[in-house]
Amino acid sequence: xxxxxxxxxxxxxxxxxxxxxxxxxxxxxxxxxxxxxxxxxxxxxxxxxxxxxxxxxxxxxxxxxxxxxxxxxxxxxxxxxxxxxxxxxxxxxxxxxxxxxxxxxxxxxxxxxxxxxxxxxxxxxxxxxxxxxxxxxxxxxxxxxxxxxxxxxxxxxxxxxxxxxxxxxxxxxxxxxxxxxxxxxxxxxxxxxxxxxxxxxxxxxxxxxxxxxxxxxxxxxxxxxxxxxxxxxxxxxxxxxxxxxxxxxxxxxxxxxxxxxxxxxxxxxxxxxxxxxxxxxxxxxxxxxxxxxxxxxxxxxxxxxxxxxxxxxxxxxxxxxxxxxxxxxxxxxxxxxxxxxxxxxxxxxxxxxxxxxxxxxxxxxx
Length: 366
Hints:
elongated, 22% helix
């Protein structure tokens, strides 16, 4: 059983014409000035001065970068705990900040008894625009290799942490992604006088899971802009991959769209839902708690699956297209599962349990 808890911490930058001393302590360093957003080359960057320790100069420098980025754009802290058979298997903290170091200047480097301490001026950009801003040169032939390497390293760190945020939520698919509703059972006889129990079933997306999935996607992606006669806006949207959640309520913001400029994150979603096919597991117990019947059958979730009957449904709970994934929370799968009890006694039947599991787990329960 996995338990996820996400807390979004928003760090508000104070915009001031003057930079004043702040001395804000952090586990990885000290903020020496109150940060401020500045306009440079027609884009916003966040300027801040930080000091950070490390066992080596490079470690101290990386700690300073992490602190500057977290101060600029805030940090998502996600705690993931996994236990099985009442034993803790994994307890992990994932932190994510959607920014990167645009440029920096080392003001001072000192050797200490525990390693190194560096003091730096750091300019931070938002990761949503990282691909368009990589290595702006002062001349057509110049490349600032040190700055480029820093941009690449911090962007890769952001992407790696973002992948972990998405993976933590996707790991609960399909076990916690659906709700199963059972209607009143119907009992009939076959033409051979055998008892048959029909169980009406409705499968829906679990609203809490969809909310967590959307919040994680929005954290590592970006909400698409409404482009009205704006060429720059249209260029910014070009090449994006989209996630569209058709929500039952108003939890999805103005339209439930999230854009990704990173194909790997879209592919991670597709890989999870295609390689971990959901199945409906139905178990019937008697009054003594013994299992009298068990069925575990996959159901068609998305358009890439081929139905066993050969007839495709008019809608899907999940639609995967070239540059778009659509999750339809408003659509439910309805059907009836029939159980043939033959000539067995039914007087001690007690309850029916239904849950969605990974198809790979079906064989383990037989």
